[in-house]
Amino acid sequence: MCVLETERLVLRRMTTDDAEFILKLVNEPSFIRFIGDKGVRNHADAVQYIQTGPVASYQRFGFGLYLVELKESRVPIGMCGLVKRDSLPDVDVGFTFLPAFWSKGYAFEAAVAVKAYGTNVLGIGRLVAITNPDNESSIKLLEKIGLRFERMIRLSEDASEIKLFASDV
């Protein structure tokens, strides 16, 4: 189901048919470095990741991470969307893209659309984002879409500190 369209992109709800792409995406070295190892090692793991993550979020909250595709070819290039984490009181803007699609403006285009959707359509008053302190590209993108560094946080007691960005609408 298409949720958002931009000039060059389609953001749609993920389905288990997207498992092969998700398997590739979450095992990219950059994903593991900046987001974490999700333990997705095969097709069945990817199906479970989609069902217990994005699909469960759509059912519970009405939003989640969306698959990002190029509008012209419908080639999947990443994911971007809204996440409600148990460890954060606010809704989180999240994104990740295959390295071949970095530095082309796709993450910015998708994140702007998701942020507008969250505030204007879903009525979310405060959006946040989290990122690894050394992920300079994500930090620049978050600032470019209007989020500002708020403080360092830990999502759990044993987790590393990460940067929390926020935007009050």
Secondary structure topology:
Elements (H helix, E strand, L loop, with lengths): L1 E4 L3 E5 L5 H7 L3 H6 L8 H19 L3 E6 L5 E9 L6 E7 L8 H16 L4 E6 L4 H9 L3 E6 L8 E7 L1
Parallel strand pairs: 5-6
Antiparallel strand pairs: 1-2, 2-3, 3-4, 4-5, 6-8, 7-8
Helix pairs in contact: 1-3
Characterize the structure shown.
The protein is α+β, with helices and mostly antiparallel strands and 169 residues long. It has one domain (2-168): Aminopeptidase (3-Layer(aba) Sandwich), CATH 3.40.630. The chain has helices at 19-25, 29-34, 43-61, 106-121, 136-144, and strands at residues 2-5, 9-13, 65-70, 76-84, 91-97, 126-131, 148-153, 162-168. A hairpin with a 6-residue loop joins strand 4 (76-84) and strand 5. Helix 1 (19-25) crosses helix 3. The relative contact order is 0.15. The model has no long low-confidence stretch (mean pLDDT 95).
Percent in strands:
25-35%
Per DSSP E runs of 2 or more residues, the count of β-strands stands at 8
Q: Name the poorly predicted regions.
A: none
Given helix and strand content, the structural type is alpha+beta
Give the N-terminus to C-terminus distance in angstroms.
27 Å
Instruction: Write out the CATH superfamily name.
Output: Gcn5-related N-acetyltransferase (GNAT)
Overall pLDDT: 95
Order of helices and strands: EEHHHEEEHEHEE
> Largest sheet, if any?
8 strands, mixed
Can you count the helices?
Answer: 5
Strand order of the largest sheet: 1-2-3-4-5-6-8-7
Count of all domains? 1
**Architecture per CATH nomenclature, i.e. the level-2 architecture:** 3-Layer(aba) Sandwich
Any idea what the radius of gyration is? 15 Å
| CATH topology annotation | Aminopeptidase
Into which percent range does the helicity of residues fall?
Answer: 25-40%
